[in-house]
Protein backbone atom coordinates (compact mmCIF):
# COMPACT_ATOMS: atom_id res chain seq x y z
CA UNK A 1 0.00 0.00 0.00
CA UNK A 2 1.53 3.30 -1.00
CA UNK A 3 1.71 6.54 0.95
CA UNK A 4 -1.23 8.23 -0.73
CA UNK A 5 -3.59 5.34 0.06
CA UNK A 6 -2.45 5.43 3.69
CA UNK A 7 -3.10 9.16 3.73
CA UNK A 8 -6.57 8.49 2.39
CA UNK A 9 -7.35 6.01 5.15
CA UNK A 10 -5.90 8.36 7.76
CA UNK A 11 -8.07 11.19 6.48
CA UNK A 12 -11.21 9.05 6.61
CA UNK A 13 -10.24 7.83 10.07
CA UNK A 14 -9.86 11.42 11.28
CA UNK A 15 -13.34 12.21 9.93
CA UNK A 16 -14.86 9.80 12.45
CA UNK A 17 -14.07 12.23 15.28
CA UNK A 18 -16.39 14.90 13.81
CA UNK A 19 -19.39 14.24 16.13
CA UNK A 20 -17.13 15.04 19.12
CA UNK A 21 -16.66 18.62 17.92
CA UNK A 22 -19.59 19.71 15.79
CA UNK A 23 -23.31 20.24 16.14
CA UNK A 24 -26.08 19.13 13.75
CA UNK A 25 -24.92 21.47 10.97
CA UNK A 26 -21.40 20.02 11.00
CA UNK A 27 -22.89 16.52 11.02
CA UNK A 28 -25.04 17.33 8.03
CA UNK A 29 -22.03 18.68 6.14
CA UNK A 30 -19.99 15.66 7.19
CA UNK A 31 -22.67 13.28 5.92
CA UNK A 32 -22.82 15.06 2.57
CA UNK A 33 -19.01 15.10 2.40
CA UNK A 34 -18.93 11.34 2.94
CA UNK A 35 -21.65 10.87 0.31
CA UNK A 36 -19.81 12.99 -2.27
CA UNK A 37 -16.59 11.14 -1.54
CA UNK A 38 -18.38 7.81 -2.11
CA UNK A 39 -19.75 9.02 -5.46
CA UNK A 40 -16.39 10.39 -6.57
CA UNK A 41 -14.41 7.31 -5.48
CA UNK A 42 -16.89 5.03 -7.21
CA UNK A 43 -16.85 7.04 -10.41
CA UNK A 44 -13.08 6.88 -10.31
CA UNK A 45 -13.19 3.10 -10.75
CA UNK A 46 -14.75 3.40 -14.19
CA UNK A 47 -13.72 6.92 -15.17
CA UNK A 48 -10.26 7.06 -13.63
CA UNK A 49 -8.96 3.48 -13.64
CA UNK A 50 -10.58 2.21 -16.85
CA UNK A 51 -10.84 5.59 -18.59
CA UNK A 52 -14.50 5.32 -19.63
CA UNK A 53 -16.40 8.65 -19.43
CA UNK A 54 -19.40 7.36 -17.47
CA UNK A 55 -22.38 9.61 -16.78
CA UNK A 56 -24.37 6.83 -15.15
CA UNK A 57 -23.72 7.75 -11.50
CA UNK A 58 -27.11 9.47 -11.15
CA UNK A 59 -28.85 6.40 -12.58
CA UNK A 60 -27.50 4.13 -9.85
CA UNK A 61 -27.90 6.77 -7.14
CA UNK A 62 -31.57 7.07 -8.01
CA UNK A 63 -31.95 3.33 -8.42
CA UNK A 64 -30.55 2.74 -4.92
CA UNK A 65 -32.66 5.51 -3.42
CA UNK A 66 -35.86 4.11 -4.89
CA UNK A 67 -35.04 0.47 -4.20
CA UNK A 68 -34.30 1.26 -0.55
CA UNK A 69 -37.25 3.63 -0.25
CA UNK A 70 -39.75 1.12 -1.61
CA UNK A 71 -38.37 -1.70 0.56
CA UNK A 72 -38.47 0.50 3.68
CA UNK A 73 -42.05 1.35 2.82
CA UNK A 74 -42.81 -2.37 2.88
CA UNK A 75 -41.45 -2.55 6.41
CA UNK A 76 -37.96 -3.94 5.74
CA UNK A 77 -35.19 -3.02 8.20
CA UNK A 78 -32.75 -0.39 6.87
CA UNK A 79 -29.65 -2.58 6.80
CA UNK A 80 -31.37 -5.35 4.85
CA UNK A 81 -32.88 -2.88 2.38
CA UNK A 82 -29.47 -1.27 1.79
CA UNK A 83 -27.74 -4.59 1.23
CA UNK A 84 -30.49 -5.65 -1.19
CA UNK A 85 -30.14 -2.37 -3.12
CA UNK A 86 -26.37 -2.79 -3.20
CA UNK A 87 -26.51 -6.35 -4.50
CA UNK A 88 -29.26 -5.59 -7.02
CA UNK A 89 -27.39 -2.64 -8.47
CA UNK A 90 -24.17 -4.67 -8.71
CA UNK A 91 -25.97 -7.28 -10.80
CA UNK A 92 -27.87 -4.68 -12.85
CA UNK A 93 -24.76 -2.61 -13.56
CA UNK A 94 -22.71 -5.69 -14.38
CA UNK A 95 -25.27 -6.84 -16.95
CA UNK A 96 -25.75 -3.34 -18.40
CA UNK A 97 -22.00 -2.86 -18.42
CA UNK A 98 -21.46 -5.98 -20.48
CA UNK A 99 -23.64 -4.37 -23.15
CA UNK A 100 -22.89 -0.65 -22.83
CA UNK A 101 -19.14 -0.87 -22.30
CA UNK A 102 -18.71 -2.18 -25.82
CA UNK A 103 -19.20 1.43 -26.85
CA UNK A 104 -16.29 3.80 -26.63
CA UNK A 105 -15.75 7.53 -26.19
CA UNK A 106 -18.69 9.77 -27.06
CA UNK A 107 -21.03 6.88 -27.71
CA UNK A 108 -20.49 5.43 -24.25
CA UNK A 109 -20.93 8.87 -22.69
CA UNK A 110 -24.28 9.34 -24.44
CA UNK A 111 -25.49 5.82 -23.67
CA UNK A 112 -24.68 6.24 -19.97
CA UNK A 113 -26.39 9.66 -19.96
CA UNK A 114 -29.52 8.19 -21.50
CA UNK A 115 -29.52 5.42 -18.89
CA UNK A 116 -30.35 8.15 -16.35
CA UNK A 117 -33.21 9.39 -18.53
CA UNK A 118 -34.63 5.90 -19.07
CA UNK A 119 -34.59 5.03 -15.35
CA UNK A 120 -36.09 8.39 -14.42
CA UNK A 121 -38.93 7.98 -16.91
CA UNK A 122 -39.57 4.41 -15.77
CA UNK A 123 -39.79 5.51 -12.14
CA UNK A 124 -41.95 8.47 -13.17
CA UNK A 125 -44.42 6.17 -14.90
CA UNK A 126 -44.51 3.34 -12.36
CA UNK A 127 -46.87 5.34 -10.15
CA UNK A 128 -48.23 2.31 -8.27
CA UNK A 129 -44.83 1.28 -6.97
CA UNK A 130 -42.89 4.54 -6.67
CA UNK A 131 -45.51 7.26 -6.43
CA UNK A 132 -44.36 8.64 -9.82
CA UNK A 133 -43.97 12.41 -10.00
CA UNK A 134 -45.61 12.82 -6.59
CA UNK A 135 -42.50 11.39 -5.00
CA UNK A 136 -42.08 8.77 -2.32
CA UNK A 137 -42.44 9.33 1.41
CA UNK A 138 -40.16 7.14 3.48
CA UNK A 139 -41.30 6.24 7.00
CA UNK A 140 -39.38 7.90 9.83
CA UNK A 141 -37.36 5.69 12.11
CA UNK A 142 -38.98 5.28 15.53
CA UNK A 143 -38.63 8.50 17.51
CA UNK A 144 -35.10 9.35 18.47
CA UNK A 145 -33.78 12.90 18.87
CA UNK A 146 -32.59 15.13 16.03
CA UNK A 147 -28.98 14.92 17.13
CA UNK A 148 -29.07 11.14 17.61
CA UNK A 149 -30.59 10.78 14.15
CA UNK A 150 -27.94 13.02 12.57
CA UNK A 151 -25.15 11.12 14.34
CA UNK A 152 -26.56 7.79 13.21
CA UNK A 153 -26.72 8.78 9.54
CA UNK A 154 -23.29 10.40 9.69
CA UNK A 155 -21.73 7.19 10.98
CA UNK A 156 -23.68 5.07 8.49
CA UNK A 157 -22.46 7.20 5.58
CA UNK A 158 -18.96 7.27 7.04
CA UNK A 159 -18.86 3.47 7.31
CA UNK A 160 -20.00 3.25 3.70
CA UNK A 161 -17.22 5.64 2.69
CA UNK A 162 -14.68 3.50 4.52
CA UNK A 163 -15.96 0.40 2.72
CA UNK A 164 -15.78 2.21 -0.62
CA UNK A 165 -12.24 3.39 0.04
CA UNK A 166 -11.12 -0.12 1.03
CA UNK A 167 -12.75 -1.50 -2.13
CA UNK A 168 -11.01 1.08 -4.33
CA UNK A 169 -7.63 0.48 -2.67
CA UNK A 170 -8.09 -3.27 -3.03
CA UNK A 171 -8.87 -2.82 -6.72
CA UNK A 172 -5.83 -0.60 -7.29
CA UNK A 173 -3.53 -3.23 -5.75
CA UNK A 174 -5.12 -6.25 -7.44
CA UNK A 175 -4.98 -7.85 -10.85
CA UNK A 176 -8.29 -6.17 -11.63
CA UNK A 177 -6.74 -2.73 -11.16
CA UNK A 178 -3.81 -3.65 -13.36
CA UNK A 179 -6.18 -4.95 -16.03
CA UNK A 180 -8.23 -1.74 -15.92
CA UNK A 181 -5.06 0.33 -16.33
CA UNK A 182 -4.20 -1.80 -19.40
CA UNK A 183 -7.68 -1.16 -20.80
CA UNK A 184 -7.29 2.58 -20.24
CA UNK A 185 -3.96 2.72 -21.99
CA UNK A 186 -4.71 0.52 -24.97
CA UNK A 187 -7.78 -1.64 -25.00
CA UNK A 188 -7.04 -3.38 -28.29
CA UNK A 189 -3.60 -4.39 -27.08
CA UNK A 190 -5.05 -5.57 -23.76
CA UNK A 191 -7.47 -7.77 -25.69
CA UNK A 192 -4.61 -9.11 -27.80
CA UNK A 193 -2.59 -10.35 -24.83
CA UNK A 194 -5.57 -12.33 -23.60
CA UNK A 195 -7.18 -9.98 -21.09
CA UNK A 196 -10.93 -10.59 -20.86
CA UNK A 197 -11.66 -6.87 -21.13
CA UNK A 198 -15.48 -7.20 -21.25
CA UNK A 199 -15.46 -9.11 -17.96
CA UNK A 200 -13.06 -6.67 -16.31
CA UNK A 201 -15.03 -3.65 -17.44
CA UNK A 202 -18.33 -5.20 -16.32
CA UNK A 203 -16.96 -5.96 -12.86
CA UNK A 204 -15.58 -2.43 -12.62
CA UNK A 205 -18.93 -0.96 -13.68
CA UNK A 206 -20.75 -3.14 -11.15
CA UNK A 207 -18.37 -2.18 -8.34
CA UNK A 208 -18.65 1.48 -9.24
CA UNK A 209 -22.46 1.22 -9.13
CA UNK A 210 -23.07 -0.74 -5.93
CA UNK A 211 -21.71 1.72 -3.35
CA UNK A 212 -23.30 4.63 -5.19
CA UNK A 213 -26.60 2.79 -4.95
CA UNK A 214 -26.15 2.13 -1.22
CA UNK A 215 -25.30 5.82 -0.74
CA UNK A 216 -28.51 6.69 -2.61
CA UNK A 217 -30.43 4.37 -0.28
CA UNK A 218 -28.96 5.98 2.82
CA UNK A 219 -29.71 9.41 1.37
CA UNK A 220 -33.35 8.40 0.86
CA UNK A 221 -33.65 7.10 4.42
CA UNK A 222 -31.94 10.26 5.68
CA UNK A 223 -34.09 12.88 3.91
CA UNK A 224 -37.34 10.83 4.15
CA UNK A 225 -38.72 12.10 0.83
CA UNK A 226 -37.46 11.51 -2.70
CA UNK A 227 -38.84 12.28 -6.13
CA UNK A 228 -37.51 11.35 -9.57
CA UNK A 229 -36.16 14.78 -10.53
CA UNK A 230 -34.27 14.94 -7.22
CA UNK A 231 -32.45 11.60 -7.09
CA UNK A 232 -32.09 11.13 -10.88
CA UNK A 233 -30.63 14.64 -11.17
CA UNK A 234 -27.97 14.63 -13.88
CA UNK A 235 -25.84 16.78 -11.56
CA UNK A 236 -25.20 13.64 -9.49
CA UNK A 237 -23.43 12.30 -12.58
CA UNK A 238 -21.47 15.45 -13.27
CA UNK A 239 -20.42 16.44 -9.75
CA UNK A 240 -18.27 13.31 -9.15
CA UNK A 241 -16.51 13.99 -12.46
CA UNK A 242 -15.79 17.56 -11.45
CA UNK A 243 -14.53 16.36 -8.06
CA UNK A 244 -12.28 13.79 -9.69
CA UNK A 245 -10.96 16.33 -12.19
CA UNK A 246 -10.44 18.78 -9.35
CA UNK A 247 -8.51 16.34 -7.22
CA UNK A 248 -6.64 14.54 -9.96
CA UNK A 249 -7.94 11.74 -12.14
CA UNK A 250 -7.16 8.18 -11.06
CA UNK A 251 -5.71 8.88 -7.61
CA UNK A 252 -8.14 7.85 -4.82
CA UNK A 253 -6.58 10.28 -2.33
CA UNK A 254 -6.78 13.12 -4.84
CA UNK A 255 -10.36 12.29 -5.72
CA UNK A 256 -11.51 12.38 -2.08
CA UNK A 257 -9.65 15.66 -1.52
CA UNK A 258 -11.41 16.95 -4.63
CA UNK A 259 -14.77 15.92 -3.18
CA UNK A 260 -14.11 17.78 0.08
CA UNK A 261 -12.82 20.91 -1.65
CA UNK A 262 -15.79 20.82 -4.01
CA UNK A 263 -18.26 20.55 -1.12
CA UNK A 264 -16.60 23.47 0.66
CA UNK A 265 -16.88 25.62 -2.48
CA UNK A 266 -20.45 24.51 -3.10
CA UNK A 267 -21.48 25.33 0.46
CA UNK A 268 -19.95 28.80 0.27
CA UNK A 269 -21.63 29.49 -3.07
CA UNK A 270 -25.00 28.14 -1.89
CA UNK A 271 -24.95 30.29 1.21
CA UNK A 272 -24.03 33.50 -0.50
CA UNK A 273 -25.39 33.33 -4.05
CA UNK A 274 -28.43 31.05 -3.98
CA UNK A 275 -29.93 32.57 -7.16
CA UNK A 276 -26.89 32.05 -9.32
CA UNK A 277 -25.34 29.02 -7.68
CA UNK A 278 -25.44 26.79 -10.74
CA UNK A 279 -23.93 29.56 -12.86
CA UNK A 280 -21.09 29.92 -10.36
CA UNK A 281 -20.63 26.15 -10.46
CA UNK A 282 -20.37 26.44 -14.26
CA UNK A 283 -17.73 29.16 -14.01
CA UNK A 284 -15.83 26.97 -11.56
CA UNK A 285 -15.90 24.00 -13.95
CA UNK A 286 -14.73 26.11 -16.89
CA UNK A 287 -11.89 27.71 -14.93
CA UNK A 288 -10.83 24.36 -13.51
CA UNK A 289 -10.60 22.75 -16.94
CA UNK A 290 -8.79 25.67 -18.54
CA UNK A 291 -6.38 26.53 -15.74
CA UNK A 292 -5.78 23.36 -13.72
CA UNK A 293 -6.43 20.43 -16.05
CA UNK A 294 -4.55 17.87 -13.95
CA UNK A 295 -6.19 18.68 -10.62
CA UNK A 296 -5.05 19.71 -7.19
CA UNK A 297 -2.80 16.68 -6.89
CA UNK A 298 -0.57 18.12 -9.64
CA UNK A 299 0.27 21.00 -7.31
CA UNK A 300 3.34 20.00 -5.30
CA UNK A 301 4.15 21.68 -2.04
CA UNK A 302 7.75 21.72 -3.15
CA UNK A 303 6.74 23.97 -6.03
CA UNK A 304 5.66 26.71 -3.63
CA UNK A 305 8.57 26.12 -1.38
CA UNK A 306 11.15 26.45 -4.13
CA UNK A 307 9.52 29.54 -5.47
CA UNK A 308 9.60 31.08 -2.02
CA UNK A 309 13.31 30.31 -1.68
CA UNK A 310 14.22 32.01 -4.94
CA UNK A 311 12.13 35.06 -4.24
CA UNK B 1 -57.99 8.84 -40.60
CA UNK B 2 -56.23 8.67 -37.24
CA UNK B 3 -53.37 6.94 -39.00
CA UNK B 4 -53.11 9.76 -41.54
CA UNK B 5 -53.17 12.36 -38.76
CA UNK B 6 -50.43 10.55 -36.82
CA UNK B 7 -48.30 10.32 -39.97
CA UNK B 8 -48.75 13.99 -40.84
CA UNK B 9 -47.93 15.03 -37.26
CA UNK B 10 -44.81 12.87 -37.39
CA UNK B 11 -43.76 14.48 -40.67
CA UNK B 12 -44.22 17.99 -39.26
CA UNK B 13 -42.47 17.22 -35.98
CA UNK B 14 -39.74 15.18 -37.68
CA UNK B 15 -38.56 18.11 -39.78
CA UNK B 16 -38.35 20.24 -36.62
CA UNK B 17 -36.41 17.50 -34.81
CA UNK B 18 -34.00 17.36 -37.74
CA UNK B 19 -33.55 21.13 -37.47
CA UNK B 20 -32.82 20.83 -33.72
CA UNK B 21 -30.27 18.10 -34.27
CA UNK B 22 -28.46 19.25 -37.37
CA UNK B 23 -26.25 21.86 -35.72
CA UNK B 24 -25.44 19.45 -32.91
CA UNK B 25 -24.54 16.78 -35.45
CA UNK B 26 -22.32 19.19 -37.39
CA UNK B 27 -20.33 20.14 -34.28
CA UNK B 28 -20.04 16.54 -33.13
CA UNK B 29 -18.97 15.33 -36.55
CA UNK B 30 -16.46 18.08 -37.35
CA UNK B 31 -15.03 19.07 -33.96
CA UNK B 32 -15.58 15.71 -32.24
CA UNK B 33 -17.16 17.60 -29.36
CA UNK B 34 -20.50 16.76 -27.74
CA UNK B 35 -21.88 20.23 -27.40
CA UNK B 36 -24.08 20.32 -24.32
CA UNK B 37 -24.86 24.05 -24.70
CA UNK B 38 -26.92 23.24 -27.78
CA UNK B 39 -30.19 22.96 -25.85
CA UNK B 40 -29.68 26.30 -24.14
CA UNK B 41 -28.85 27.95 -27.48
CA UNK B 42 -32.21 26.72 -28.79
CA UNK B 43 -34.05 28.18 -25.81
CA UNK B 44 -32.12 31.45 -26.17
CA UNK B 45 -33.27 31.57 -29.81
CA UNK B 46 -36.86 31.14 -28.65
CA UNK B 47 -36.48 34.06 -26.24
CA UNK B 48 -35.03 36.17 -29.04
CA UNK B 49 -38.07 35.46 -31.23
CA UNK B 50 -40.40 36.14 -28.32
CA UNK B 51 -38.66 39.40 -27.45
CA UNK B 52 -38.66 40.63 -31.05
CA UNK B 53 -42.36 39.87 -31.42
CA UNK B 54 -43.31 41.43 -28.08
CA UNK B 55 -41.34 44.64 -28.49
CA UNK B 56 -41.14 45.27 -32.25
CA UNK B 57 -43.92 43.03 -33.64
CA UNK B 58 -41.41 41.26 -35.86
CA UNK B 59 -42.92 37.87 -36.72
CA UNK B 60 -40.70 34.83 -36.08
CA UNK B 61 -40.05 34.03 -39.74
CA UNK B 62 -38.27 37.39 -40.08
CA UNK B 63 -36.58 36.90 -36.71
CA UNK B 64 -34.62 34.09 -38.35
CA UNK B 65 -32.66 36.70 -40.31
CA UNK B 66 -31.64 38.41 -37.07
CA UNK B 67 -30.99 35.22 -35.10
CA UNK B 68 -28.66 33.50 -37.57
CA UNK B 69 -25.81 36.08 -37.62
CA UNK B 70 -26.10 36.83 -33.88
CA UNK B 71 -25.80 33.20 -32.91
CA UNK B 72 -23.05 32.61 -35.47
CA UNK B 73 -20.94 35.31 -33.83
CA UNK B 74 -21.70 33.98 -30.35
CA UNK B 75 -20.68 30.44 -31.32
CA UNK B 76 -17.62 31.58 -33.24
CA UNK B 77 -16.30 33.56 -30.28
CA UNK B 78 -17.09 30.81 -27.79
CA UNK B 79 -15.11 28.30 -29.82
CA UNK B 80 -12.21 30.66 -30.52
CA UNK B 81 -11.82 31.90 -26.95
CA UNK B 82 -12.70 28.90 -24.77
CA UNK B 83 -13.32 25.59 -26.45
CA UNK B 84 -10.28 25.81 -28.69
CA UNK B 85 -7.97 25.62 -25.68
CA UNK B 86 -9.02 22.08 -24.84
CA UNK B 87 -10.04 20.85 -28.28
CA UNK B 88 -7.43 18.09 -28.37
CA UNK B 89 -8.16 16.90 -24.80
CA UNK B 90 -10.07 13.64 -24.18
CA UNK B 91 -13.87 13.41 -24.48
CA UNK B 92 -14.39 13.83 -20.77
CA UNK B 93 -12.77 17.26 -20.69
CA UNK B 94 -14.56 18.81 -23.67
CA UNK B 95 -17.88 17.33 -22.54
CA UNK B 96 -17.49 18.67 -19.01
CA UNK B 97 -16.42 22.07 -20.33
CA UNK B 98 -19.55 22.43 -22.46
CA UNK B 99 -21.58 21.26 -19.47
CA UNK B 100 -20.08 24.06 -17.39
CA UNK B 101 -20.83 26.61 -20.12
CA UNK B 102 -24.39 25.27 -20.32
CA UNK B 103 -24.84 25.73 -16.56
CA UNK B 104 -23.75 29.35 -16.89
CA UNK B 105 -26.02 30.14 -19.86
CA UNK B 106 -29.00 28.29 -18.40
CA UNK B 107 -28.64 29.93 -15.01
CA UNK B 108 -28.36 33.33 -16.69
CA UNK B 109 -31.61 32.68 -18.57
CA UNK B 110 -33.41 31.57 -15.41
CA UNK B 111 -32.11 34.68 -13.68
CA UNK B 112 -33.20 37.12 -16.37
CA UNK B 113 -36.35 35.51 -17.77
CA UNK B 114 -37.46 33.49 -14.69
CA UNK B 115 -38.47 29.86 -15.00
CA UNK B 116 -42.08 30.67 -16.00
CA UNK B 117 -43.40 29.32 -19.24
CA UNK B 118 -44.04 31.99 -21.87
CA UNK B 119 -45.84 31.64 -25.15
CA UNK B 120 -45.42 33.57 -28.33
CA UNK B 121 -49.04 34.10 -29.38
CA UNK B 122 -49.51 35.44 -32.88
CA UNK B 123 -52.12 38.18 -33.04
CA UNK B 124 -54.27 37.77 -35.09
CA UNK B 125 -54.00 33.97 -35.06
CA UNK B 126 -53.38 32.35 -38.43
CA UNK B 127 -55.62 29.33 -37.98
CA UNK B 128 -55.22 25.88 -39.44
CA UNK B 129 -55.83 24.06 -42.68
CA UNK B 130 -57.73 20.82 -42.94
CA UNK B 131 -57.75 18.34 -45.77
CA UNK B 132 -60.39 15.62 -45.35
CA UNK B 133 -60.10 14.89 -41.61
CA UNK B 134 -56.43 15.77 -41.22
CA UNK B 135 -55.90 19.09 -39.43
CA UNK B 136 -52.62 20.99 -39.41
CA UNK B 137 -52.16 24.42 -37.82
CA UNK B 138 -50.65 26.92 -40.26
CA UNK B 139 -47.95 28.06 -37.81
CA UNK B 140 -46.69 24.49 -37.65
CA UNK B 141 -46.63 24.32 -41.43
CA UNK B 142 -44.60 27.52 -41.59
CA UNK B 143 -42.18 26.20 -38.95
CA UNK B 144 -41.79 22.92 -40.83
CA UNK B 145 -41.21 24.63 -44.15
CA UNK B 146 -38.63 26.95 -42.59
CA UNK B 147 -36.91 24.00 -40.92
CA UNK B 148 -36.71 22.20 -44.27
CA UNK B 149 -35.40 25.37 -45.92
CA UNK B 150 -32.67 25.75 -43.28
CA UNK B 151 -31.68 22.13 -43.68
CA UNK B 152 -31.50 22.58 -47.46
CA UNK B 153 -29.46 25.73 -47.04
CA UNK B 154 -26.90 23.94 -44.89
CA UNK B 155 -26.75 21.12 -47.42
CA UNK B 156 -26.05 23.58 -50.23
CA UNK B 157 -23.45 25.38 -48.12
CA UNK B 158 -21.58 22.17 -47.36
CA UNK B 159 -21.82 20.97 -50.99
CA UNK B 160 -21.22 24.10 -53.03
CA UNK B 161 -19.26 26.68 -51.10
CA UNK B 162 -15.52 26.73 -50.54
CA UNK B 163 -15.92 26.93 -46.77
CA UNK B 164 -18.39 24.07 -46.84
CA UNK B 165 -16.00 21.82 -48.74
CA UNK B 166 -13.27 22.71 -46.25
CA UNK B 167 -15.59 21.75 -43.35
CA UNK B 168 -16.33 18.39 -44.95
CA UNK B 169 -12.62 17.87 -45.63
CA UNK B 170 -11.72 18.52 -41.98
CA UNK B 171 -14.43 16.11 -40.94
CA UNK B 172 -13.19 13.32 -43.18
CA UNK B 173 -9.49 13.65 -42.44
CA UNK B 174 -8.14 16.44 -40.31
CA UNK B 175 -4.47 15.82 -40.98
CA UNK B 176 -4.90 15.61 -44.74
CA UNK B 177 -6.92 18.84 -44.65
CA UNK B 178 -4.04 20.58 -42.85
CA UNK B 179 -1.65 19.40 -45.55
CA UNK B 180 -3.98 20.83 -48.22
CA UNK B 181 -3.68 24.23 -46.59
CA UNK B 182 -6.99 24.34 -44.72
CA UNK B 183 -6.83 26.52 -41.61
CA UNK B 184 -8.32 23.96 -39.21
CA UNK B 185 -8.68 26.35 -36.28
CA UNK B 186 -10.82 28.77 -38.22
CA UNK B 187 -12.84 25.91 -39.76
CA UNK B 188 -13.54 24.61 -36.25
CA UNK B 189 -14.73 28.04 -35.19
CA UNK B 190 -16.88 28.43 -38.31
CA UNK B 191 -18.44 24.99 -37.85
CA UNK B 192 -19.20 25.76 -34.21
CA UNK B 193 -20.65 29.12 -35.24
CA UNK B 194 -22.84 27.40 -37.84
CA UNK B 195 -23.99 24.90 -35.22
CA UNK B 196 -24.93 27.75 -32.88
CA UNK B 197 -26.70 29.63 -35.69
CA UNK B 198 -28.76 26.55 -36.56
CA UNK B 199 -29.61 26.09 -32.88
CA UNK B 200 -30.74 29.71 -32.64
CA UNK B 201 -32.89 29.39 -35.76
CA UNK B 202 -34.38 26.13 -34.49
CA UNK B 203 -35.24 27.98 -31.28
CA UNK B 204 -37.00 30.72 -33.23
CA UNK B 205 -39.12 28.10 -35.01
CA UNK B 206 -39.83 26.28 -31.74
CA UNK B 207 -41.18 29.53 -30.29
CA UNK B 208 -43.96 29.37 -32.89
CA UNK B 209 -45.23 26.07 -31.50
CA UNK B 210 -44.06 25.30 -27.98
CA UNK B 211 -44.08 27.33 -24.74
CA UNK B 212 -40.67 28.78 -23.87
CA UNK B 213 -38.81 28.02 -20.64
CA UNK B 214 -35.14 27.61 -19.72
CA UNK B 215 -36.07 24.23 -18.30
CA UNK B 216 -36.86 22.77 -21.72
CA UNK B 217 -33.23 22.99 -22.86
CA UNK B 218 -32.43 19.49 -21.64
CA UNK B 219 -35.42 18.09 -23.53
CA UNK B 220 -34.14 19.64 -26.76
CA UNK B 221 -30.66 18.31 -26.05
CA UNK B 222 -32.06 14.83 -25.47
CA UNK B 223 -33.89 14.95 -28.82
CA UNK B 224 -30.68 16.05 -30.52
CA UNK B 225 -28.81 13.06 -29.03
CA UNK B 226 -31.40 10.59 -30.16
CA UNK B 227 -31.74 12.03 -33.67
CA UNK B 228 -27.96 12.05 -34.17
CA UNK B 229 -27.55 8.47 -33.08
CA UNK B 230 -30.56 7.24 -35.07
CA UNK B 231 -29.63 9.03 -38.26
CA UNK B 232 -25.87 8.86 -38.13
CA UNK B 233 -23.38 11.59 -37.47
CA UNK B 234 -22.44 14.64 -39.42
CA UNK B 235 -24.57 14.22 -42.51
CA UNK B 236 -27.56 16.41 -43.37
CA UNK B 237 -29.60 13.55 -44.77
CA UNK B 238 -28.84 11.45 -41.68
CA UNK B 239 -30.26 14.12 -39.37
CA UNK B 240 -33.40 14.33 -41.51
CA UNK B 241 -33.86 10.54 -41.49
CA UNK B 242 -33.21 10.40 -37.73
CA UNK B 243 -35.64 13.23 -37.03
CA UNK B 244 -38.42 11.62 -39.04
CA UNK B 245 -37.83 8.21 -37.46
CA UNK B 246 -37.86 9.67 -33.94
CA UNK B 247 -41.05 11.63 -34.58
CA UNK B 248 -42.69 8.56 -36.09
CA UNK B 249 -41.71 6.35 -33.14
CA UNK B 250 -42.91 8.96 -30.65
CA UNK B 251 -46.15 9.55 -32.52
CA UNK B 252 -47.02 5.89 -32.95
CA UNK B 253 -45.89 5.14 -29.40
CA UNK B 254 -48.06 7.92 -27.95
CA UNK B 255 -51.06 6.77 -29.97
CA UNK B 256 -50.72 3.12 -28.98
CA UNK B 257 -49.20 2.88 -25.49
CA UNK B 258 -49.77 6.41 -24.19
CA UNK B 259 -47.80 9.68 -24.33
CA UNK B 260 -46.16 9.25 -20.92
CA UNK B 261 -44.04 6.40 -22.29
CA UNK B 262 -42.91 8.23 -25.46
CA UNK B 263 -39.65 9.49 -23.93
CA UNK B 264 -38.76 6.11 -22.48
CA UNK B 265 -39.44 4.56 -25.86
CA UNK B 266 -37.20 7.00 -27.69
CA UNK B 267 -34.30 6.52 -25.27
CA UNK B 268 -34.70 2.76 -25.34
CA UNK B 269 -34.52 3.00 -29.13
CA UNK B 270 -31.37 5.11 -28.72
CA UNK B 271 -29.66 2.45 -26.63
CA UNK B 272 -30.68 -0.32 -29.05
CA UNK B 273 -29.28 1.70 -31.95
CA UNK B 274 -26.06 2.48 -30.09
CA UNK B 275 -25.48 -1.22 -29.56
CA UNK B 276 -26.63 -2.65 -32.87
CA UNK B 277 -25.95 0.12 -35.35
CA UNK B 278 -23.78 2.84 -33.81
CA UNK B 279 -23.15 4.42 -37.21
CA UNK B 280 -26.87 5.25 -37.54
CA UNK B 281 -29.36 4.69 -40.34
CA UNK B 282 -27.42 6.48 -43.06
CA UNK B 283 -23.99 6.66 -41.51
CA UNK B 284 -21.03 4.92 -43.02
CA UNK B 285 -18.54 3.05 -40.92
CA UNK B 286 -15.16 4.65 -40.50
CA UNK B 287 -16.32 8.23 -41.01
CA UNK B 288 -16.49 9.07 -37.33
CATH topology-level fold name of chain B: ABC transporter involved in vitamin B12 uptake, BtuC
Q: State the share of residues found in helices of chain A, binned by percent.
A: over 70%
Percent of residues in β-strands of chain A: under 5%
Low-pLDDT runs of chain B:
none
Which protein chains are joined by the largest interface, and how many residues does each one contribute? Answer: A-B, 40 and 41 residues
Q: What's the number of domains of chain B?
A: 1
User: How confident overall, as mean pLDDT of chain A?
Assistant: 85
Number of helices of chain B: 11
Helix content of chain B: over 70%
Assess the beta-strand content of chain B as a share of residues: under 5%
Oligomer: heterodimer
Helix and strand sequence of chain A = HHHHHHHEHHHHEHHHHH
- Rg of chain A, alpha carbons: 20 Å
Q: Within the largest sheet of chain A, what's the order of strands?
A: 1-2
Strand order of the largest sheet of chain B: 1-2
| Biggest β-sheet description of chain A | 2 strands, antiparallel
What letter string, H or E per element, gives the SSE order of chain B?
A: HHHHEEHHHHHHH
Global mean pLDDT of chain B? 84
CATH architecture of chain B: Orthogonal Bundle
Assign an overall shape of chain A.
globular
